[in-house]
Amino acid sequence: MTRPRAGLRRRHLLALPGLFATPALAQAPWPNRPVRIIVPFGPGGPTDVVARILANGLAPAIGQPVVIENRGGAGGNIGTALAARAAPDGYTLLVPSTGFVVNASLFRNPGYDPIRDFMPITELGASPDVFLCGAGSSIRSFDDLVAKARATQGGMHFANPGTGSTPHLAGERLAIERNLTFVQVTHSSAALAVQALLAGTTEIGATALASSHAQIKAGALRAVALTGPERWFDLPEVPTMVELGFPGFVSETFLSLHVPAGTPQPVVDRLARESTAVMGDAQVRGRMRNAGFIVRPEGPAALGARVAREVASWRDLIARARIAQE
After folding, report:
1. DSSP characters for 190-207?
2. Which of 27, 66, 144, 310 could be 55's S-S partner, Cβ–Cβ 3.0 to 4.6 Å?
3. How does pLDDT run across 61-93, given as a tens digit for each residue?
4. Considering the domain 128-226 in this protein, what is its CATH number?
5. Whole-prediction pTM value?
6. How far is CA 82 from CA 2, 164, 183, 311, in A?
7. Which is nearest to 278 in space by CA: 37, 61, 35, 90?
């Protein structure tokens, strides 16, 4: 057998490191294909609308299409659990609403843990809850609402957009703090809760401001109190719950951006940088504010702190209100 010449043998050996390094060299930087955003609700609602605003700005920033995938059901649990199980490679993002932090206590097994299974990117927008009645109601103020609720035998019917939604829980908190009785009328969406108030089938209720802002401005609904930290810019006559004598009574429906736990830190950093830039744009902020959202794109640390804080606070309120787990 002819033995290979020494020079040829050395060339073969020199080629081996390159052979083993090929997969690493072939791995293209993120992103090299389309990115999907899972929205755990159907199309057309506030979460979907904000996710599409984000996607429209994010796509040109990262140089790849950003596709919305609506996966509704179980109060947001189905789509959120799907995102939790996705590969942590930066190609699956999640835009949930506040159910993300509430459902951990509301459901025995929501299918995900909001802290363990996800990494925070940034808050996208927040909308205070608003206590409402129809324009034809005799209730003209928050004090009127409390007085009528106290005088109604068996409790007033109270429209909410879903069990465990922040408007539902705001009503439960009010009932606890003022020793009132509400008969919660739970709807499958904010639109249906608003419709019940417009039709007068339910006299009082609550939604996120983003869901009823247009009807309030049109005079079809009357807002008697907001749960934000300050009065809303174009509803200066509507007091906050803090102003009405409820210290710390601040609740918001907030939307946020997350990725599965284990996503590489450079991808997290890039997403945080690009998404905060998109949501910080003056035109985007204006559109969001006119729709009932305040924008606070403060990045991963601020969102992570908010998630941890709200998981604990909603767990406490659900226990105090004795809301049965589903």
Report:
1. HHHHHHHHHHTSSSEEEE
2. 66
3. 999 999 999 999 888 999 999 999 999 999 999
4. 3.40.190.10
5. 0.86
6. 60, 20, 34, 20
7. 61
